[in-house]
Structure formats: structure tokens, C-alpha cells
């Protein structure tokens, strides 16, 4: 298991059920973390590292604010109003909740990965190595959540430049009867294939790794029943 420190100046982790008001979850779900890590190592196949476990916690409390912005939805396609995907009734102003000064600790464990080559842990270490990271090919800026929410810093926990040992960490851990639900796999065509992990947000007094079984496991829809 390895731990990462990640800082994002502005972010929004929108629940899938959010409609008129785009509120933000207190931290990114495992599915978002997994997508971020794939982007970080330059991987375009999201099934490449199935079986990896990952979760995150927030260091301190991010500042919350709301902004009024243009939101895009598919309401009409063509027709008399000549509405297309980018205008007409498909675009309207709505409020979105933002988190500022987001500081995260992310834990990754590759011991159960279904991969024969390099594990995600190994590729992350390569991407952070000054002598090897030049071999990583990425597309666009590195973001967490929306593409405009760019990441400021990524480092191994033992090398992070901030002293957060005296701050509390709110961490998502798997629980059979947890009171909090986060996505571990997202169906981008509809929502029937989206799956979730049950867990709790626990507060810890220091940055310490959780037990492996407390980390949600990333699996495709057909294999999800074996992940929890």
C-alpha cells in the first residue's frame, strides 16, 4: 500500500443524483480517485487495473462556496426551436457548490489487481520518480473531478511539503452497514451499471494507513459482487 498527498485549489465532487443544485460531496468517491490515478499514469483503458483498492480522506476542512454558472443538459435535439446540444433549452444558469483548498490523502493497494504487468502502485511510483516520469504520456491537464479543476500537487505521503500531522483526517472506509455511499464504478451510458460501496466517514487524528479490507475495491459491473 502507498499513500499520496494531493492538493486541489478548487473542486466539486458532484453526486450522480444532483440535478438543479450541483452540491459537492465532502470528498471524491473511489471511482473519481481511480480515474484520476489512471490519468496520472497516462492510462486510457479504465479496465487496466481492475481489482485495485483505493480510498481517500480530507485533511482539515475545505472552504465551501456557491457560484452561478451555465449548466449543460440535453433537453432538446433540433426541432422548431433549432436547439442543439450547446444552446437553447439545453443551457441554463444554475448554482454549483465548490470546495476550496482541498487537501487529500489517497491510499492505494494493488495486492488484488487483475493485471499481469506493472501494477498501479508501481506505475504511480514511476510517475513520481524524477528519473522515470519523463516516460509518462498524458492528455491535457491533470484534474480531479471536472476537467477545469486542476491538481496543484501530488507527492508521496512521506515526501509531502506540508505539516499535516497535527490535523484531523476524515477518511472513507468500507463498512457492511455503513451510512455513507460512494460510487466505485460509473456507467457513463445511463446509470444501470453504476455500483457503490457502503462505508463510513471516520475521523483520525493523524495520517495513518487503513487496513487493506477497509479500502473499496474497483471492479467492473459484472464483477462487482466480489468487491465488497
How would you sum up this structure in a few lines?
The protein has 228 residues and is mainly beta.
Sum up the structure in keywords.
228 residues, mainly beta, eight-stranded antiparallel β-sheet, 2 helices
Describe the structure.
- The protein has 228 residues and is mainly β.
- The protein contains two helices and eight strands; from the N terminus they run E-H-E-E-E-H-E-E-E-E.
- It has helices spanning 30-41, 120-128; strands at residues 2-11, 53-59, 63-72, 91-109, 153-156, 169-174, 180-185, 195-204.
- Helix 1 packs across helix 2.
- It is globular.
- The model is unreliable at 79-83 and 222-228 (pLDDT under 50).
Element-level helix/strand string: EHEEEHEEEE
Structural class computed from helices and strand pairing: mainly beta
Quaternary status of these chains? single chain
What is the molecular shape?
globular
- Helical residue percent band: under 10%
What is the CA–CA distance across the termini? 18 Å
Largest sheet: 8 strands, antiparallel
- Proportion of residues in β-strands: 25-35%
Backbone CA Rg: 18 Å
Question: Mean pLDDT across all residues, rounded?
Answer: 82
Low-confidence stretches: 79-83, 222-228
By DSSP (H or I, 4+ residues per run), the number of helices equals 2
Number of strands: 8
List the topology elements.
Layout: E1 2-11, H1 30-41, E2 53-59, E3 63-72, E4 91-109, H2 120-128, E5 153-156, E6 169-174, E7 180-185, E8 195-204
Antiparallel strand pairs: 1-4, 1-5, 2-4, 2-6, 3-4, 6-8, 7-8
Helix pairs in contact: 1-2
Amino acid at each position: 500500500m502507498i499513500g499520496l498527498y494531493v492538493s486541489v485549489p478548487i473542486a466539486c465532487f458532484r453526486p450522480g443524483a444532483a440535478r438543479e443544485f450541483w452540491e459537492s460531496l465532502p470528498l471524491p468517491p473511489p471511482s473519481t480517485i481511480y480515474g484520476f490515478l489512471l490519468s496520472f499514469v497516462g492510462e486510457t483503458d479504465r479496465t487496466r487495473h481492475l481489482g485495485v483498492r483505493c480510498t481517500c480522506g480530507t485533511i482539515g476542512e475545505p472552504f465551501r462556496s456557491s457560484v452561478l454558472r451555465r449548466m449543460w443538459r440535453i433537453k432538446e435535439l433540433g426541432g422548431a426551436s433549432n436547439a442543439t446540444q450547446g444552446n437553447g433549452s439545453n443551457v441554463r444558469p444554475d448554482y454549483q457548490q465548490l470546495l476550496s483548498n482541498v487537501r487529500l490523502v489517497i491510499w492505494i493497494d494493488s495486492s488484488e489487481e487483475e493485471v499481469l504487468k506493472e501494477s498501479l502502485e508501481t506505475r504511480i511510483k514511476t510517475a513520481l520518480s524524477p528519473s522515470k516520469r519523463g516516460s509518462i504520456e498524458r492528455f491535457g491537464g491533470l484534474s480531479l473531478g471536472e476537467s477545469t479543476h486542476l491538481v496543484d500537487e501530488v507527492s508521496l505521503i512521506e515526501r509531502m511539503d506540508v505539516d499535516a500531522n497535527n490535523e484531523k483526517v476524515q477518511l472513507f472506509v468500507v463498512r457492511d452497514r455503513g451510512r455513507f455511499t460512494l460510487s466505485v464504478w460509473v456507467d457513463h451510458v445511463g446509470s444501470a451499471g453504476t455500483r457503490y460501496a457502503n462505508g463510513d466517514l471516520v475521523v483520525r487524528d493523524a495520517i495513518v494507513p487503513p487496513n487493506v479490507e477497509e479500502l473499496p475495491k474497483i471492479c467492473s459491473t459484472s464483477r462487482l459482487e466480489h468487491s465488497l
